[in-house]
């Protein structure tokens, strides 16, 4: 497959101002007649050849200006039509089989309904079209089909007509007045229930809202609807963005590759991010629904009104929209907790991506398959880069920059460079050097040294970015660091300031009048970098217990534990870390956290989470996953015993809080399961009893899925007679709800049970398991990959199972198959024995005949 380069971008030779699509719908046969009004693009090189992308299509008929034309040619999957004049109407008929579409790209069947997914390049599987985001058209869509099978017929924009046809058919016609690229086209036809509501915009326009689901999911859409209305209001208040159609519809689909899709006026969602009720969704699920609903809604401006010129600019809409959804969620719940969660995701997913063979800049320079670039780098690091601009400008000037961007580029297909320029002009920032964040891959490492000088301290800050594939030399990037200087002896907390580190090395002097200065740095995680600081354990203990920045507190806690665990993994003498090799200090800080009345349980729950195994492995040039797991479990067990009374008391206190959805109840549920996690490591017998009791209580009327899943997750890791009984009970209780059965697969795949690998092998044979449903495939195998100890089983069985999964899934659904390759691609950072086994599996995949472009690209980059 060819490599596509960013620098090769050229505008398309033809404009397609208007498109008319006429669908005759059937599950196994759908006929599509497309009328494209085309005109030469004055801004592009002139060409008589109109290249229309296709993927697996045959043209049944081609008309030009209504007359049959036979001189078209196919070039690979594309259709080339040579046109004599400057403007024509080209009409093409294609026929597709949605039921056979297992890739879930284009038009496909899911549980008796028809739906579409077109981003990035799915539209070319429906009809021949210039399937690129810089060709903007208005769409008029007519659908005809049997009323009994498809009582609901939806597309983008406004409903302009509907009626009955012959033989039990009916039709509907939709018109979307906003020009859009083909990736935002959507169609849904099926037997669906709807929850309706309405929203009045800031200028008094009424918008009809609808959430469409299958009959069995009725009654679980209220949270999504409330989240939608909150998102619409927030975007008006915080970004000044108003909705621009009379209808906003959401449809939930259970077979879906992504989380959701922002099609204009007709968002299509994975059921996982729509459906929620207390008996089947956890608190985490509720938050995820709210966040994804917001994300897709916010795309209406950052993505749809202003789209991307080409797919290299993906972060233009995704990075910005992730930042927007993060700020929204911060405003809806606990801002510090949300910030810590976002940083945890960045560091456990994006940092490893950026230090491995798949590392790429937030604006990539090349790709073979764009689906492989919907990554944590483009999304989450992209959001961090824009967040830094916001930090440098402050919220008001940032808003002015956003306003200018929306005003300047409304209706256009724009670039990251356009966004940066709007920020320079609108927010008054000088971003000349900052642009390197867009072009340079890799996570900057910042070293901070503190020395006492007369009247204060001198900071020496230096930065380096490790080489990444294809980028050997790196330049310094501007790094905004929020910092404060506290005093450990007096407990005085210093004022926060913002320091810009712009060079490779920089020295600054800060005034301080105490004897024990302690530097709190990268507060709020103001920059997506790794901080290397040599802080004494006493300083970390002070920061973990006292810092006024919640993130800095969390970070000190993490550093304290990371320091202890890494030295245990390296087999170093523990004295460096003081009494008990640092364990005593960790115990004391945890005890402070457990007793601290100044924080709520949601925050307490964050401070109790030990650094994950992937994050720990990331701290070492070459990691031994087995040793990391053993050291981490040993610490957890020691803490579980040392603080048994405290954890027990916490579990009791939290169990007495009600089942509501306020912050107090959610916090209580969070710490309740956290307490179980420590107790399970320290006193398994006691933990099994408590986990069983928590599970059983959650099955009483009004009980929550959060408690049920938390109890069962802990129980699944233990050897207890209750384990099998409760797993069976959970299955029986929820067997009709696929999203909950996904949880049942996941929690066994994630469990700390020593036979987890064998459990997963058996579950892959379970009658409810299938690779055809992406949620189900991920529920078992992605959860398993996240279970580092099981995935990295020393004999390589875990690696083989994942390679088998890739090979079985690739012919069905390449996009989802390719997502399982990166975990194996980490081999260079794993000890040599396992590394060889991981490589062996990558080579086995690479040797398979007829690999998809998706999997081929990921495997070849991983073998590098
Ligand atoms: N639907 C995916 C998202 O919203 C891709 N645009 O991120
Ligand atoms: Zn998005």
UniProtKB/TrEMBL annotation:
Aminopeptidase N-like N-terminal domain segment(s): 80-184
- Keywords, comma-separated and alphabetical: Aminopeptidase, Hydrolase, Metal-binding, Metalloprotease, Protease, Zinc
Residues in coiled coil: none
**Pfam families membership:** DUF3458, DUF3458_C, Peptidase_M1, Peptidase_M1_N
- InterPro entries found in the cross-reference section: Aminopeptidase_N-like_N, Aminopeptidase_N-like_N_sf, PepN_Ig-like_sf, Peptidase_M1, Peptidase_M1_dom, Peptidase_M1_pepN, Peptidase_M1_pepN_C, Peptidase_M1_pepN_C_sf
The UniProt family comment states: Belongs to the peptidase M1 family.
Cofactor(s) it depends on = Zn(2+)
The Gene Ontology biological process terms listed for this entry are: proteolysis
Residue span(s) of domain Peptidase M1 alanyl aminopeptidase Ig-like fold: 442-533
Output the CDD domains linked to this UniProt entry. Answer: M1_APN
Give the GO molecular function terms. alanyl aminopeptidase activity; metallopeptidase activity; zinc ion binding
Q: What positions does the domain Peptidase M1 membrane alanine aminopeptidase occupy?
A: 224-437
This protein's source sits in the domain of life called: Bacteria
The protein's Enzyme Commission number: 3.4.11.2
Q: Where is the Peptidase M1 alanyl aminopeptidase C-terminal domain?
A: 538-863
Species assigned in the record? Croceibacterium mercuriale
State the name under which the record lists this protein: Aminopeptidase N
Q: Which SUPFAM superfamilies does the entry link to?
A: Leukotriene A4 hydrolase N-terminal domain, Metalloproteases ('zincins'), catalytic domain
Mind telling me which NCBIfam families this protein's record contains?
Answer: pepN_proteo (TIGR02414)
Q: Which reaction does it catalyse?
A: Release of an N-terminal amino acid, Xaa-|-Yaa- from a peptide, amide or arylamide. Xaa is preferably Ala, but may be most amino acids including Pro (slow action). When a terminal hydrophobic residue is followed by a prolyl residue, the two may be released as an intact Xaa-Pro dipeptide
């Amino acid at each position: 497959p060819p490599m596509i380069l960013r620098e090769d971008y050229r505008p398309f030779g033809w404009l397609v101002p208007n498109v008319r699509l006429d669908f005759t719908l059937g599950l196994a046969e759908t006929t599509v007649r497309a009328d494209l009004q085309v005109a030469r693009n004055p801004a592009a090189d002139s060409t008589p050849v109109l290249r229309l992308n296709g993927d697996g299509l045959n043209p049944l008929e081609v008309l030009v200006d209504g007359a049959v034309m036979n001189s078209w040619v196919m070039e690979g999957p594309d259709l080339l039509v040579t046109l004599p004049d400057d403007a024509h109407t080209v009409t093409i008929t294609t026929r597709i089989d949605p039921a056979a579409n297992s890739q879930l790209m284009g038009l496909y069947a899911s549980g008796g309904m028809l739906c579409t997914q077109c981003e990035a390049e799915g539209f070319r599987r429906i009809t021949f079209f210039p399937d690129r985001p810089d060709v903007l058209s208005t769409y008029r869509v007519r659908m005809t089909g049997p009323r009994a099978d498809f009582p609901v017929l939806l597309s983008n924009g406004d409903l302009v007509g509907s009626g009955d046809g012959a033989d039990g058919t009916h039709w509907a016609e939709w018109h979307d007045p906003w020009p859009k690229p083909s990736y935002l086209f959507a169609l849904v036809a099926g037997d669906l229930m709807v929850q309706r509501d309405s929203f009045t915009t800031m200028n008094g326009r009424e918008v009809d809202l609808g959430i469409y689901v299958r009959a069995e999911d009725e009654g679980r859409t209220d949270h999504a609807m409330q989240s939608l209305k909150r998102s619409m209001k927030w975007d008006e208040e915080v970004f000044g963005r108003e909705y621009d159609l009379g209808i906003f519809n959401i449809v939930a689909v259970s077979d879906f590759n992504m989380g959701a899709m922002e099609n204009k006026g007709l968002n299509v969602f994975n059921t996982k991010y729509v459906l929620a009720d207390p008996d089947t969704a956890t608190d985490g699920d509720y938050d995820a629904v709210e966040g994804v609903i917001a994300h897709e809604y916010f795309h209406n401006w950052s993505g749809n009104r202003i789209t991307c010129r080409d797919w290299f600019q993906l972060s233009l809409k995704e990075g910005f929209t992730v930042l927007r959804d993060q700020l929204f969620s911060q405003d809806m719940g606990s801002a510090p907790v949300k910030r810590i969660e976002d940083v945890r995701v960045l560091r456990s997913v994006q940092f490893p991506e950026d230090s491995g063979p798949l590392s790429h800049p937030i604006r990539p320079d090349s790709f073979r398959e764009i689906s492989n670039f919907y990554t944590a780098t483009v999304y989450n690091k992209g959001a961090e880069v824009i967040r830094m601009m916001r930090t440098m400008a402050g919220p008001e000037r940032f808003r002015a920059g956003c306003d200018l961007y929306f005003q300047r580029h409304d209706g256009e297909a724009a670039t990251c460079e356009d966004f940066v320029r709007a920020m320079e002009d609108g927010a008054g920032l000088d971003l000349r050097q900052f642009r390197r964040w867009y072009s340079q891959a890799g996570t900057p490492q910042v070293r901070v040294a503190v020395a006492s000088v007369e009247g204060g301290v001198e900071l020496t800050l230096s930065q380096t970015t490790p080489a990444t594939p294809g980028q050997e030399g790196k330049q310094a990037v501007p790094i905004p660091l929020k910092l404060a200087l506290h005093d450990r002896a007096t407990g005085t907390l210093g004022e926060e300031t913002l320091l810009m580190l712009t060079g490779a090395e920089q020295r600054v002097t800060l005034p301080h009048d105490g004897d024990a200065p302690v530097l709190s740095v990268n507060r709020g995680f103001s920059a997506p970098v790794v901080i290397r600081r040599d802080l004494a354990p006493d300083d970390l203990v002070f920061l973990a217990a006292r810092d006024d920045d919640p993130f800095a507190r969390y970070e000190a806690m993490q550093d304290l534990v990371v320091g202890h665990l890494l030295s245990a993994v390296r087999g170093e003498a523990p004295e460096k870390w003081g009494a008990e090799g640092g364990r005593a200090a960790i115990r004391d800080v945890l005890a402070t956290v457990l007793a601290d009345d100044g924080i709520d349980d949601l925050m307490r729950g964050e401070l109790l989470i030990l650094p994950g195994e992937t994050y720990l492995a990331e701290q070492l040039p070459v990691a031994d996953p087995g040793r990391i797991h053993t050291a981490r479990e040993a610490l957890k067990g020691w803490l579980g015993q040392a603080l048994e009374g405290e954890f027990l008391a916490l579990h009791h206190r939290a169990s007495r809080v009600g089942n509501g959805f306020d912050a107090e109840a959610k916090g209580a549920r969070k710490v309740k399961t956290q307490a179980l996690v420590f107790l399970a490591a320290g006193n398994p017998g006691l933990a099994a009893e408590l986990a069983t009791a928590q599970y059983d209580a959650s099955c009483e009327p009004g009980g929550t899925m959060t408690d049920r899943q938390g109890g069962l997750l802990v129980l699944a890791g233990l050897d207890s007679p209750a384990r099998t009984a409760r797993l069976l009970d959970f299955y029986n209780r929820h067997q009709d709800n696929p999203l909950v059965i996904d949880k049942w697969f996941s929690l066994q795949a994630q469990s700390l049970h020593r036979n987890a690998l064998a459990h997963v092998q058996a579950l892959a044979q379970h009658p409810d398991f299938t690779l055809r449903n992406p949620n189900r495939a991920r529920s078992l195998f992605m959860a398993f990959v996240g279970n580092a100890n099981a995935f990295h089983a020393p004999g390589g069985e875990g690696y083989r199972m994942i390679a088998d999964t890739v090979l079985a899934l690739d012919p069905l659904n390449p996009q989802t198959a390719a997502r399982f390759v990166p975990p194996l691609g980490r081999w260079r950072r794993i000890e040599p024995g396992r590394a060889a086994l991981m490589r062996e599996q990558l080579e086995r995949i690479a040797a398979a005949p007829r690999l998809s472009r998706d999997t081929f690209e990921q495997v070849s980059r991983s073998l590098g």
